[in-house]
């Protein structure tokens, strides 16, 4: 879980907990103290990302999608529930999949 942009600490923790319960190794990268937000800017991404070290097997990707969607359902506002979370290959900007609550 990459939360270095400071998108949502609780959401990142919930997704990490769900993935860890599946037996997946999870590291949560927290934001630095320097992170600031301009609330007037509409963000396409939440600042949260899933980073995988290699292209996952289809069953693992389905499990990740399931857990992200489950965590999105518990967000306190519609805006927070309807955001998209990218699955990146490593520390690159390459997005393997975008996950949101819309199937």
Structure description:
- The protein has one domain.
- Helix content is 32%, strand content 13%.
- It has three helices and three strands; from the N terminus they run H-E-H-H-E-E.
- The protein has a three-stranded mixed β-sheet.
- Helix 1 packs across helix 2.
- The radius of gyration is 13 Å and the shape is globular.
- The model is unreliable at 40-45 (pLDDT under 50).
Topology:
Layout lengths: L8 H13 L28 E3 L5 H16 L4 H4 L3 E5 L5 E5 L4
Parallel strand pairs: 1-2
Antiparallel strand pairs: 2-3
Helix pairs in contact: 1-2
Shape: globular
Q: Helix segment count? A: 3
Order of helices and strands: HEHHEE
User: Span between N and C termini?
Assistant: 21 Å
Main sheet record? 3 strands, mixed
Number of structural domains: 1
The whole-number mean of residue pLDDT values reads 82
């Amino acid at each position: 879980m990459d939360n270095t942009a400071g998108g949502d600490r609780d959401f990142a923790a919930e997704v990490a907990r769900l993935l860890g319960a599946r037996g997946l190794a999870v590291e949560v990268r927290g934001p630095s103290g320097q992170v600031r937000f301009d609330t007037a800017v509409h963000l396409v991404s939440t600042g949260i990302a899933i980073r995988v070290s290699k292209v996952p097997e289809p069953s693992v990707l389905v499990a990740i999608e399931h857990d992200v969607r489950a965590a999105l359902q518990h967000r306190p506002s519609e805006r927070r529930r309807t955001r998209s979370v990218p699955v990146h290959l490593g520390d690159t900007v390459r997005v393997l999949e975008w996950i949101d609550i819309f199937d």
